């Protein structure tokens, strides 16, 4: 059978070649046709089924034609042929074994586009024809760009401003079938209006595109003429000036939530996106440019600028606006700026200030007036609590404070002295508690007597009142008993007694009222005084002398005495009591000077002039008394009794009369001459004595110092210093009667109690 096939094949082959020369394949009529598209340079596989329709039939020959020209054949048993002009570079490969048989043409060129068909002959069955319409696609050149002036543009155009219209042509050379040219922004087609250009075999698409941030970012031109290959893309970079489109401030650290803390630094950063070129980021705090503590970085791939700001917020910055302004340096400021503005929330523990409200008086209030204090508070976050402090102790509701003590105002309807003291307030919020300074409130009140009222201190009256402010005027009402009321005003609470006129030997009714300009004193301080303790001491050292023909009483001065009185007491004949015989004031100075009423002698020492007085007629058994006086009255008298010696000296012998008269003087002169002769011997001895022998004097209770003092007074007759008012009154009261008439009954002599008298007398007699 193989042999027969071989024999019959050759003539058939030749026949076929000849026969088919004039034969043309008619698609659809001679056999089915399929379409195949393929790329230039690629390959295409043509399939053809060569199995016979029935099992008893047999395949004879298969021939492939291109446009009716044979390019390949295969016949049994194993004869293969290919057209050498077509099978160049061994580009034709056949696989006859598998079914359907496959013939692959590689390195396809434009010329390979043709109608191919295969013809299969069988021994019995009719010839089979299958057509394949092969289209070879030729890709176009990559697109390129030309501007309006037909200048070629490579890669990058611009710069443009936002909104400018970009006019640009995209051109493509060649391509079969002719390509479609489209403009894309990203994946969005923005222009598909392509067409043929003036240049042959070149197609173009001219773009008119108002540029925006969105469409300019990824602009490209695409050319495509087959689905077999992806479009050919040319990317265009557009340099577009853009303002930042999103500026935002964020806190990096130093905040709690979005709240800042006064005094603790915080870091903010501002991000500006989408600006080209790099924007300038500036920080503003309430329209104040912050130039320090910020830096800026730029990330050109994402068009993001970042600026950090270190901010140290103060209390005053609460509520302030913080702005980050991104300015594009190449654009007009009104177009190129964008900003983010945030309001600062600066928290701080309260700021507290205490003050007194009302009447303009800073820190004082008059008793019974209202007292109103205000706690001036600034706080963020808002206050949670207010506390008031009085003398550093927290004020609790109730008592002198009323019930409302938790508001910003502390109100006391009627201030009392208990409300005077130190006040402060404290405010608390979530950030802490702050205590205010202390304000010292003084409560003024009118004067009122203290427990003491008026007191006598030494020789002054003191008015004891409580008052705030300290009173500056004191009104005195003074009434020595038996006299008119005297009204005096002083600027201090002390009134010296010497400002009161009239004697103070008896009682004095005194009242005082103070004034401190707050209100007048409601009740005057009142008291009645006696001044016995201010009277002088009883004279302690006195003597009686018989001098210049009369009895005299002399005393050592007593402190604080302004005048002295002398008295003579005589034993009553009817009963055993002493009766006042006469009384007189004592003068000062030496014996006779006293009688003349002139100035008394004054000691050179501190004791002042010695008081002395003539006693007049003194009998045996009489007693003489001396007492010291001042305006507060007189002391008890010191009583002395003249001694026998003195009495004898005072009671002269009978011839004494002659000595007193002119005759007596003559006789006396004669006697003196005689005596002179007789005593001439003695004279020398007597001449040495500087002093005349003193008269016979009984000295009582005098020590040596006092004696010496009294003697000196008598000798020198120093002029008395009588600056004291009381001194002159002592002189003027020369007569008993006139002094007595002026004196009050309580100042009168009282009979000295016998026991006292005797005691003194006994002492003096020792
Ligand atoms: C035909 O082309 C495809 C892809 O293009 C390739 O994988 C294949 O090897 C080619 N065949 C021949 C026979 O060249
Ligand atoms: C094409 O030519 C090469 C060498 O010239 C040959 O080896 C190959 O078999 C031919 N192809 C076919 C299908 O005949
Ligand atoms: C073959 O395909 C081309 C386009 O690829 C077409 O123009 C032609 O008419 C087709 N031929 C037939 C016979 O279908
Ligand atoms: C700006 O950016 C922030 C986050 O960075 C975003 O939440 C906001 O929506 C953006 N605003 C605009 C207008 O894009
Ligand atoms: C500020 O922050 C504080 C604490 O976070 C908050 O209580 C308060 O309400 C904030 N104030 C404003 C005006 O946002
Ligand atoms: C800017 O300041 C921040 C905070 O101080 C810092 O973290 C950052 O590194 C600084 N950047 C530059 C570029 O200096
Ligand atoms: C960003 O800047 C770097 C150098 O500064 C440059 O090499 C790079 O090309 C720039 N990138 C863009 C997208 O402009
Ligand atoms: C005399 O008066 C002064 C002043 O008043 C007083 O200090 C003194 O004690 C008085 N002397 C006597 C002895 O009373
Ligand atoms: C003593 O006699 C006098 C008159 O000589 C008289 O004034 C006085 O009252 C008498 N005193 C007494 C206690 O009787």
UniProtKB/TrEMBL annotation:
It is found in: Membrane. The chain crosses the membrane at residues 663-684. Its main location: membrane. Keywords: Disulfide bond, Membrane, Signal, Transmembrane, Transmembrane helix. Residues 1-24 form the signal peptide. GO terms for cellular component: membrane. It comes from the Eukaryota. SMART domains: IG, IGc2. Residues 27-135, 142-237, 243-347, 350-442 form the Ig-like domain. Residues 727-766 are annotated as: Disordered. It is a single-pass membrane protein. The keyword Membrane applies. This is Hemicentin-2-like isoform X2.
């Amino acid at each position: 059978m193989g042999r027969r096939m071989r024999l019959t094949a050759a003539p058939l082959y030749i026949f076929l070649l000849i026969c088919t020369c004039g034969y043309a394949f008619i698609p659809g009529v001679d056999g089915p046709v399929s379409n195949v598209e393929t790329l230039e340079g690629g390959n295409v596989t043509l399939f053809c089924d060569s199995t016979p329709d029935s099992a008893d039939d047999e395949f004879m020959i298969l021939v492939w034609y291109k446009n009716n020209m044979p390019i390949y054949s295969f016949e049994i048993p194993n004869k293969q042929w290919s057209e050498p002009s077509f099978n160049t570079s061994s580009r034709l490969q056949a696989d006859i074994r598998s079914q359907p048989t496959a013939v692959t043409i590689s390195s396809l060129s434009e010329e390979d586009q043709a109608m191919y068909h295969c013809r299969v002959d069988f021994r019995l069955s009719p010839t089979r024809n299958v057509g394949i319409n092969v289209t070879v696609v030729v890709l176009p050149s990559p697109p390129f760009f030309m501007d309006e002036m037909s200048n070629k543009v490579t890669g990058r155009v611009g710069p443009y401003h936002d909104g400018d219209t970009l006019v640009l042509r995209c051109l493509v050379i060649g391509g079969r079938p002719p390509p479609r040219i489209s403009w894309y922004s990203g994946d969005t087609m923005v222009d598909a209006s392509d067409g043929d250009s003036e240049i042959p075999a070149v197609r173009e698409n001219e773009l008119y595109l108002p540029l925006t941030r969105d469409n300019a970012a990824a602009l490209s031109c695409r050319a495509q003429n087959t689905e077999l290959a992806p479009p050919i893309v040319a990317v265009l970079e557009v340099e577009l000036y853009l303002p930042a489109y999103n500026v935002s401030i964020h806190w990096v650290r130093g905040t709690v939530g979005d709240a800042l803390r006064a005094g603790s630094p915080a870091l903010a950063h501002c991000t500006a996106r989408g600006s080209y070129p790099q924007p300038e980021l500036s920080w503003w705090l309430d329209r104040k440019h912050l130039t320090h503590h910020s830096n800026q970085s730029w990330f050109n791939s994402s068009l993001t600028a970042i600026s950090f700001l270190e901010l140290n917020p103060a209390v005053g910055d609460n509520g302030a606006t913080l702005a980050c302004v991104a300015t594009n340096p190449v654009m007009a400021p009104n177009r190129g700026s964008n900003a983010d503005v945030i309001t600062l929330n600066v928290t701080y523990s309260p700021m507290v200030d205490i003050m007194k409200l009302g009447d303009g008086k800073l820190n004082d209030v008059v008793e019974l007036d209202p007292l109103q204090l205000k706690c001036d508070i600034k706080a963020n976050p808002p206050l949670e609590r207010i506390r008031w402090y009085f003398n550093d102790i927290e004020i609790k509701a109730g008592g002198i404070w009323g019930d409302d003590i938790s508001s910003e105002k502390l109100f006391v309807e009627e201030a009392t002295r208990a409300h005077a003291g130190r006040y402060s307030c404290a405010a608390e919020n979530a950030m802490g508690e702050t205590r205010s300074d202390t304000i010292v409130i003084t409560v003024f009140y009118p004067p009122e007597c203290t427990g003491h009222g008026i007191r006598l201190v030494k020789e002054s009256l003191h008015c004891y009142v409580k008052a705030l402010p300290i009173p500056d005027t004191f009104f005195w009402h003074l009434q020595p008993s038996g006299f008119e009321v005297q009204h005096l005003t002083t600027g201090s609470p002390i009134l010296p007694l010497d400002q009161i006129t009239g004697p103070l030997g008896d009682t004095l009714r005194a009242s005082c009222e103070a004034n401190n300009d707050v209100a007048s004193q409601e009740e005057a301080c009142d008291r009645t005084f006696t001044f016995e303790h201010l009277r002088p001491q009883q004279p302690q050292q006195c003597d009686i002398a018989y001098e210049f023909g009369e009895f005299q009483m002399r005393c050592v001065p007593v402190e604080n005495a302004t005048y002295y009185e002398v008295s003579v007491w005589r034993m009553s004949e009817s009963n055993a009591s002493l009766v006042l015989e006469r009384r007189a004031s004592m003068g000062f100075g030496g014996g006779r000077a006293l009688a003349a009423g002139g100035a008394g002698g004054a000691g050179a020492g501190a004791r002042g002039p010695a008081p002395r007085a003539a006693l007049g007629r003194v009998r045996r058994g009489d007693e003489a008394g001396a007492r010291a006086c001042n305006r507060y009255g007189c002391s008890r008298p010191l009583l002395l009794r003249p001694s026998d010696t003195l009495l004898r000296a005072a009671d002269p012998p009978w011839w004494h009369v002659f000595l007193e008269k002119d005759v007596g003087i003559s006789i006396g002169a004669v006697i003196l001459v005689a005596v002179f002769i007789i005593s001439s011997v003695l004279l020398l001895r007597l001449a040495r004595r500087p002093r005349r022998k003193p008269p016979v004097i009984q000295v009582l209770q005098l020590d040596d110092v006092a004696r010496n003092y009294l003697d000196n007074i008598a000798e020198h007759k120093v002029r008395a210093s009588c600056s004291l008012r009381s001194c002159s009154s002592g002189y003027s009261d020369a007569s008993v009667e006139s002094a007595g008439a002026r004196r009050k009954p309580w100042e009168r002599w009282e009979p000295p109690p016998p026991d006292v008298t005797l005691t003194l007398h006994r002492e003096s007699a020792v």
